[in-house]
């Protein structure tokens, strides 16, 4: 596991945020909102699935896809406006206004429940979708204003966990209550009002959070503003493709979750408790995956988890299809949740649903944190609003695709398989467009499988602004270890010959490494490297140089060349010395020991460290002083 020692190790876990006013009231407000949304929505879906005849003549499979569509329609219509509102107004006041609106909406829903009026309930579904549309941009733009960058992954993990636990509890209570006859519906009707009031009370503890753009003039035309929002977001390629990845997750989730009621009833031959079981294990999986993100990311925004999550979504989605084929359904009787678990093949289905949730958490949390970190703070709410529009379009598309495929005769397990295969295709496409995701995944995989890396003083690597990193050069995996330790992308300066090797060449070209050659070998390429370094630093990027110019063949630090002084002379930026420990003797170092013996001695989880030194001002930089700083950081551990 990657660790940040010293100051970083002293940070409390993400759960400590629940004791702080800057996070706790916001957390409980959004939790109660998610709970109430799903208590109401699930109660209506269950009624229209298991007691359809007394409410509507529509088929249950059609209804379970239409109700979510009605709920998300406001995201298409009003997200552009809600993003502007979230930028213009102070957030705690705005949240309280939204919670007052929730009480009014639940009052309309209560009237629909008590009068047995389906259309009033549909109106309330649409209104709650509008409520959620207004809250979304506030929800995700609030955190970067109140949390530190190193808290974003943990904070997002807590919010996603809280959201899905709220969804789970709302769905469970919504399902259980309405299945208890005439008493359950009044409890839902008035309980939703009560929970809306609790959410309002929690919102009054949210601290003042200033508006990022108080002078913004709101453009009320949702269509032109939507286009403008998406065009602005598309200007930041990484953020925009992260938005698309986020929206794809909601497509995947909508395709799978919308089928659970009918899947439980018709395929698994289960009663409503089987539906509740599927929702429970999926939501617990999402919550667990979301919370694990902070631990697996080493308290930084680790987008290497996104490909990992995507792989899991496909693998376990495909296995859910095969697990469904292996399920031995009861011959005649309907089973409850406990009866289901006694059926042959049921545990594999439950496991697949849990793991889809876990890997969904790995996928979604780093994407949210990346968007929050890389987006212009003055445009974050509108970016979130643009993402909500995309989410809505993808979820509407999911409902349409599900209805179309089921109408063409696909079974629900076949629909799960099709969704998992589509996920794999989309993942390959997105990661080919943004290779940084794949690079971070490879780096993350290296330090979580082959090595155990400890990062000492990782906070000294700046989270923004230009700087040059210098480090001793021990092995061919040096750059990957450094990349994994950094909270942001790094442009490595590498010997041009490494670009000709089949695998390493592709990796470093993908990472936008800068090729360099000795003056006597290729003076033009050398000068071009200096120009490329200057451009990267001018653009505020991190550049890493190995001033020795070659791998060590003795394990000792070779003399630092003068190129670093030339770089700093051109670009007046700080230089941060670093030292790798424990890589000498690695199979990919130039140690002359027996290769097999080296690999055996190091073991599968060999211990490494990266020590980060204090930044050196540009006017104090010399090759000799940097070499001494790196030697001091490395110490006796090669």
From TrEMBL:
Keywords: Cell membrane, Membrane, Transmembrane, Transmembrane helix, Transport. Pfam families: Acyltransferase, MFS_1. The keyword Kinase does not apply. One of its GO terms (cellular component) is plasma membrane. The chain crosses the membrane at residues 26-50, 62-81, 158-177, 183-202, 249-268, 274-293, 305-329, 349-371, 383-406, 426-447. One of its GO terms (molecular function) is acyltransferase activity. Residues 467-583 form the Phospholipid/glycerol acyltransferase domain. It is a multi-pass membrane protein. Its main location: membrane. It is found in: Cell membrane. This is MFS transporter. It comes from Pseudoduganella dura.
